[in-house]
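User: Can you predict the 3D structure for this chain?
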Amino acid sequence: MTIIQTLRPEALAAPESGIVAVVNHGRLREGLIPLWAGEGDLPTPSFISDAAARGLANGETFYTWQKGIPELRQALSRYYARHFGKTFAEEEFIVTASGMHAIQLAIDAIAGSGDEVIYLSPAWPNFAAAAGVAGAVPVPVTLDQSGNGWSCDVDKIAAAITSRTKLLFINTPSNPTGWTADKETLQAILDLARRKGLWIIADEIYSLFHYGHGRAPSFLDIATPEDRILFVNSFSKNWAMTGWRVGWIKTHPALQQVFENLIQYSTSGVAQFMQRGAVAALDEGDGFIESQVERARAARDLACDILGATGKARFTVPQGAFYLFFTVDGIADSRAAAFDIVDNANVGLAPGTAFGPGGEAFLRLCFHRRLDQLEEAAHRLAKWMKTV
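Assistant: Here is the predicted structure, written as structure tokens:
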């Protein structure tokens, strides 16, 4: 028996990220325009970094509140009051070491060996992989696509439920498709979860990156305090803090001790000086978010105009998030295409194969970048399309 064969089967089965594989292939290429990762190109704004630096300078380098410092949980309460019109006590928030950590803890609290967890696909691959590592069985339900865009057939979710199903993972606005559930769809999903006694993990990280009127619809608009919903979120997208690895869970106050215990046995808490930056992000960052959403809207329209004019790219204009998920006539293997685009167009895209069932033929482009760079990347892609 080799050393690797002594590891848990769930760990051995954890897949290599199809996105990272392309990143590693092209990371060091001179002049490459990287549109493969889910982040913008601006560094964290100074009002956030300066707050963290002050905390560091003040010696906030010791163990701290494992569920998050009171000031940050209070700031989260104010954030939800402003953007969602809901009043939540600080006891309803748990600070985590990233949005991914929030998802891991949510899965750990609900599902384990042999339990089934349903998610909507194409999907950000980390949820299904994390569920698998926990011993659960991820069950994809594909979104529908037509000339009217992406949509969710709730009857398909219902058909996928078995006696082993424990939770539904719902990401809206969606990475990678940009699909954004309307209130009626959210209500139908919640009604189904209530009837079947299921939990919902609601990933609403892109709620404010919505190109309609105001933020995207949320389960918070229709849920009651006793509904079995865990809201997972992150500071990464709204405030250009992807490298900080700070997130949160919005949960029922009765569950606070459970999640504080899970924090204890995973990370033992987020550095206090980093939490100071997160407080500043929440309390001072609404204007920054608004500017980022408008910047992303302009970038979305530019990318859609240039790629749409090729006559070879097929896509639905995304309603939310900051990705263009598109196919190219004549391309069936998006993984091979992504490597070829790196080699011959010097642009980095994520292959749709990384996003599970329903995504195989697609490529994902993150358009949350400055317009001149995005325009150059789009023209390079248009030129590449002429060769296939």
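The longest helix spans residues 286-308. The first strand starts at residue 33 and ends at 34.
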